[in-house]
Design goal:
By secondary structure, the protein is of the alpha/beta class. The protein contains nine helices and 26 strands. The protein has helices spanning 11-22, 62-68, 127-138, 150-161, 177-180, 185-193, 289-304, 369-380, 385-394; strands at residues 4-7, 29-33, 71-75, 79-83, 88-91, 94-97, 100-103, 107-109, 121-122, 143-146, 166-170, 197-200, 204-209, 213-218, 223-225, 228-231, 235-237, 253-255, 266-268, 273-277, 282-284, 317-322, 325-331, 337-344, 349-356, 359-366. The strands form seven sheets. It has a five-stranded parallel beta sheet with strand order 3-2-1-7-19.
C-alpha cells in the first residue's frame, strides 16, 4: 500500500493530510514537523494573539489527527535529508520511508546579523516567537520594528493598541513595496494616523546593547531607544535540508504546474514551493494562507493517488489587519498602471486596480471587503483592462482620479 509522508506540519502540510483523506486515501500517512506544537494557524500570531492571553490557534487536537485522520505524528524533529533513490526522509535519528512525499517545510524568517546574543530581538514566524513578542508588549516595551511589511506593520498595530510607543523603520520609500507595488502611500497614512512613528527610506546600521537590546542606529544618524526589536524582513524558503537531493532549488523547490518536483512521487506545497502558475504564465512562490491551503490539498492527493495530479492555478491573495483597517490584495503587484476605481485613499476606503499589458492583473482594497473577491474573480477569468474598468464603473461608488 502507498505510504504518504508529509514533511512540514503547518497549514500546507495539514491540508495535504486532510485532502488525501477526503479523496478516499486509506494508506498510512506520516506528518513530520520541526516544532513540538500541533499544527497551528499563523496569521493570528501577529494579530489578535498579540493583544492578550488567548490560546494558541491550533487547527486540530492531537486525538483528531491520530484517531480520525489516522495520522502518525512525528513532531519536534527536523527533517535533515532526503534520499530519493531509497525514497527515505531522514529526520533526527529516524529514517522514514515513503512512496509519495509532500514537501511543505515553509519558510524561515530572516534575522538581523549580529543580534543573536541580544535578548529582546525577535522575528515573528512561530508560536514561540509570538509568545516572546507578546510578553515584551505585556511589559510595556518601547518597540522598534524593522521592516514595514505585513508582520512588522501588524506588530506596530498591536503595540499602538496598547498605547505603547513604536517606531517602524523601512528601507523602501513606502510600506509593502514588494506586496502591493506603487500603492504604499495610503498604508503610510494608516501608520501615521494611528500614532506610529514611520521612517521610510532609511536603513538600519546597527542594533546595540549588552545582554539586552538597548537601541537601534539608523543611517541618517538617528538612534532609537528600544526594549523590543521585531525584525520583519521577510522569509526564505526552508530548503537547506534538501541540498544534494537532486531537486532544483531556486528560491524554493521548483515545481511544474501540478506541483511535481521532478523526483518520482515528490510534490511541494506552500511557502516552499516555486511552481509554474498557468494563470499568469510565470513561476511564483507565495507566502499566502489561501494558496498554501489549496496547494497542500492538491499536492497530498497528487502524491498519494497516482494519476490524480492536476495543474494548479490561482490568483494570489492576502490580507493584513492594521489598526482598525483591513488591507487586501489579489493578483500580482508589478504593473504598467494602477488606478483607483472605487472610494478615496484620503478617506481610507478604496479599491485600486493594476494593469499589465491589456489585462487586469491585480487589485488592492482597503476597507472594501465586499469588493475584493469580485475583482479577484475578474482576474481569474483573465479579464481585459477595459472590461475591468467597465465593471468598476457599474459599481455604485464614484470613480476618483487615477493614480499612475
Amino acid at each position: 500500500m502507498t505510504r504518504l509522508v508529509v514533511v512540514g506540519a503547518s497549514l500546507a502540510g495539514l491540508r495535504a493530510v486532510e485532502g488525501v483523506r477526503k479523496a478516499g486515501f486509506t494508506g498510512p500517512v506520516t506528518l513530520v514537523g520541526a516544532e513540538e506544537h500541533l499544527p497551528y494557524d499563523r496569521p493570528p500570531l501577529s494579530k489578535a494573539f498579540l493583544d492578550g492571553p488567548v490560546a494558541a490557534p491550533v487547527f486540530r487536537e492531537e486525538q483528531v489527527l491520530r484517531d480520525e485522520l489516522g495520522v502518525e505524528l512525528v513532531l519536534g524533529i527536523r527533517a535533515h535529508a532526503l534520499d530519493p533513490a531509497e525514497r527515505v526522509v531522514h529526520a533526527g535519528e529516524k529514517e522514514i520511508p515513503y512512496d509519495g512525499l509532500v514537501i511543505a517545510t515553509g519558510a524561515t524568517a530572516r534575522t538581523l546579523p549580529g543580534t543573536s546574543h541580544l535578548a529582546g530581538v525577535h522575528t515573528l514566524r512561530t508560536l514561540d516567537d509570538a509568545l516572546a513578542v507578546r510578553a515584551a508588549l505585556d511589559a510595556g516595551a518601547r518597540t522598534v520594528v524593522i521592516g514595514a511589511g505585513f508582520i512588522g506593520s501588524e506588530v506596530a498595530s498591536a503595540a499602538r493598541k496598547r498605547g505603547l510607543p513604536v517606531t517602524v523603520v523601512e528601507a523602501a520609500p513606502t510600506p509593502l513595496m514588494r506586496a502591493i507595488g506603487a500603492m504604499g502611500e495610503p498604508c503610510s497614512a494608516l501608520h501615521r494616523a494611528n500614532g506610529t512613528d514611520l521612517r521610510c527610506g532609511v536603513a538600519v546600521t546597527g542594533v546595540e546593547g549588552h545582554d539586552r537590546v538597548e537601541r537601534v542606529g539608523l543611517a541618517d544618524g538617528t538612534t532609537l531607544d528600544a526594549d523590543l526589536v521585531v525584525v520583519g524582513a521577510g522569509a526564505v524558503p526552508a530548503t537547506d535540508w534538501l541540498a544534494g537531493s537532486g531537486l532544483t532549488l531556486e528560491d524554493g523547490v521548483v515545481c511544474d504546474e501540478t506541483l511535481a518536483t521532478g523526483l518520482p512521487g515528490v510534490y511541494a506545497a506552500g511557502d516552499v514551493a516555486r511552481w509554474a502558475n498557468p494563470l499568469f504564465g510565470r513561476a511564483m512562490r507565495l507566502e499566502h494562507w489561501s494558496s498554501a491551503a489549496e496547494q497542500g490539498a492538491a499536492a497530498g492527493v497528487a502524491a498519494a493517488l497516482p494519476g490524480a495530479a492536476k495543474p494548479y492555478e490561482t490568483v494570489p491573495y492576502f490580507w493584513s489587519d492594521w489598526y482598525d483597517s483591513r488591507i487586501q490584495f489579489a493578483g500580482v503587484p508589478d504593473a504598467d498602471e494602477t488606478q483607483v476605481v472605487l472610494g478615496d485613499p484620503d478617506e481610507g476606503r478604496f479599491v485600486a486596480l493594476y494593469r499589465s499589458g491589456d489585462r487586469l492583473t491585480g487589485v488592492l482594497a482597503v476597507n472594501k471587503q465586499r469588493e475584493i473577491m469580485k475583482f479577484r474573480a475578474l482576474i481569474a477569468r483573465r479579464t481585459d483592462w477595459s472590461g475591468a474598468l467597465d465593471f468598476a464603473a457599474r459599481r455604485r461608488e464614484p470613480v476618483s482620479e487615477g493614480v499612475r
